[in-house]
Amino acid sequence: MNLTKPQRRRGEELATAILDAGWSILREAGYQGFTIDAVAERAGTSRSVLYRRWEDRTVLLDAVLAYGLNLGRREEPDDTGSLRGDVLAALRHANDRRTPIAPLMSAFLGQYYEASGRSFAELRAQAFGAHSARSLQTILDRAVARSEVDPAKLTPRVRSVATDLFRHDLLMNAKPLADEDIVTIVDEVFLPLVRPAGWTAIP
Q: What CATH topology corresponds to 73-194?
């Protein structure tokens, strides 16, 4: 018998408690274990409270994914003084932050796609919004200002190639990348694609 009594919380405090409970359940029990009843019980509240905020399980799941996948996200990317340093710092931070959820996402995505009919790109857009694009734009703007990048080479595919390769390896292997793999993505793939012709680093 469930002896957990609903707690009197309101507003953002209550919403955060529900989202935190949902994220914990998703990580522990996966897609199938994520139910309105389970989230309500874990959050110490009632089904009716959840339904007043989220109309069904799918809408709640979207909110929980956006909450959980953004935990620990920085508002601004590190400014290391170089494009190489900035991209390495961004990928290393993502690698550390996503360590606990890589296995979850690999197991979760198939069930999520089958039930929702959504693609991974749609899931990313739902979870991250424009934040990822803004962070990358900040890094590239700095690099252009330092003359480290040829703006004409920054096609949509080239701009995202480092993060795309990182994400692919993370999901395929369901574990964090080795640091040498991150360095390889940056040094052997990304930087040669964006450097100006004849570019050399300033000593």
A: Tetracycline Repressor; domain 2 (1.10.357)
